[in-house]
Amino acid sequence: MDTPVAVDGVLLAVRGKLPEFTGALKRVAEQVLTDPAGASRATIVELAERSGTSPATVTRFCRALGFEGYAELRLGIAAETGRARAAGWTVDIGREIEPGDPLEKVLQQIMAADTRAMHDTAGLLDLGEVERAADAIAGASRVNIFGASGSALVGEEMQFSLHRIGVAAWAWTDVHNGLASAALLRPGDVALGVSHSGQTRETIEMLAEAGSHGATTVALTSFPRSPLAELSDIVLLTATQATTFRPDALSARHPQLVVLDLLYIAVAQRTHDRAHAAFQRTAQAVDGHKAGKEAAR
Fold it and tell me: What whole-number distance in Å separates Cα of residue 190 and Cα of residue 26?
């Protein structure tokens, strides 16, 4: 049996294991995530009916999460949804957004989902791993950042932030260019791969190439058992809370940015004098292009 999950991390554990579940177990997981409040009140027979499975499957689902039985699972979900209400997440974050929902309700749903994702990410993130990544980047002569699609946008934000404080960083989205750059890395350099699923082949290839030349490899992903995480020296984890029209890969963006912002600040702390001087120079270089500056002269 798997190691029991913390009672206050049941839904996070279900989301993390979702890619591992197939068939009936996956249907139970999706039902729990779609309506966690309903699952906390349902009997084992009711949850089985709602997920189109059987009580035996629900029992297997509980054991896959490390629980002895259904009572423990219900208790964990109830405690978690209760804390969400107490924290002010009054919107049912498992609820789907309907086509006719007014924008006010959609905004509440998005805010509730993002707030929960941020909270889960803060609980999931290993700050020791952030410290290790910051130390590596602060001492690196070169930092390569790899990502595809939406993850590429997140990587480019990190490259921009590091560049402003004098860290030599490049963001690569094209696999050919990325592989060529990764091949030039050496021990002491850093390669950061961004992928929500941790299964994006191009990002895995580029990070693996960097690691083969001795670079310190860092993964930013939502799945600790993913191929990207398994080949990395340092793993930074994020949590997501999907809604209609914003599947996990899109809802992961804000938690990813928060983690990378934390990493960026940690790097700036470690290189304070250099970072402060670089930031001042870069800010001064573009200052003349702000509206009204020319007129004021």
Answer: 37
Q: How is 95-106 classified by DSSP, letter by letter?
A: PPPPTT--HHHH
- Beta strands 169-172 and 216-221, pairing class: unpaired
Name the residue type at position 197. Answer: S
In DSSP terms, 284 is beta-bridged to none
Residue 3: predicted pLDDT: 47
| Bridge partners, residue 222, by sequence | none
3-state secondary structure of 161: helix
Residue with tokens 């990378």: 260
State how far the Cα of 121 lies from the Cα of 12, in Å rounded to an integer. Answer: 9
> 229-265, pLDDT tens digit by residue?
999 999 999 987 655 555 555 677 888 999 999 999 9
Task: Give the DSSP per-residue string, 49-79.
Answer: HHTTS-HHHHHHHHHHTT-SSHHHHHHHHHH
Q: What is the DSSP letter of 186?
A: -
> How many alpha carbons lie under 13 Å from residue 265 in its C-beta half-sphere?
6
Question: Partners of 125 in the beta sheet?
Answer: none
At 6, is the pLDDT very low, low, confident or very high (cuts 50, 70, 90)?
Answer: very low
